[in-house]
Amino acid sequence: MLKALPKAARALVWVRILNALGAYALSFLAVLAGPQLAVVALAVFGVTALISRWAGAFLLDWFSPRTVLAAGLAATGVALIALAVADGPAQVVVAIALVGLAFELYEPAGQELLARARSGERRRRTPWHRCTSPARALGRRGSRRRPGAADRIR
């Protein structure tokens, strides 16, 4: 399956896999923070991850997608190392905030690069692809107006 993809798209798949491996550690944030800080830690991560995605989109205005992608992955790696060596509740929360701020930086750049990699090719139509469009999932009739009960009353 991967061999059928263009080289750039294959690289992006491996970037996703690498990021997913880093995300595995995030499921232990509440355990790492402890019972007193678990809610705060998860809230801090959630808010900073949202900010991170927006920041990644803004960075695309100034830098190339490859630069933003590489910077985002490098920042995530550094932040995860900071989280691993954090000692004490305050350092853990700060490290979690750093992980959140870096974690989604690469996402808009990755989507941009994937769109560029696939723009010159004709997409294959698969049953899965057909189900991703609500109109297609409804048999292409979901986007057309149907006579309803109000039309029959007249």
Model description:
- There is one protein chain.
- The chain is built from 9 helices and no strands.
- It is elongated.
- It starts with 6 loop residues before the first helix and ends with a helix.
Rg, Cα atoms, Å: 21 Å
- Summed up, the helix count is 9
- Strand-pairing-aware structural class: mainly alpha
- Fraction of residues in H or I helices: over 70%
Q: Give the averaged pLDDT, no decimals.
A: 76
Order of helices and strands: HHHHHHHHH
Which band does the percent of strand residues land in?
A: under 5%
Rounded to the nearest angstrom, the distance between the terminal CA atoms is 56 Å
Q: What is the count of β-strands?
A: 0
The major sheet is characterized as: none
Tertiary shape: elongated
Extract low-pLDDT stretches: 125-133, 140-144, 148-152
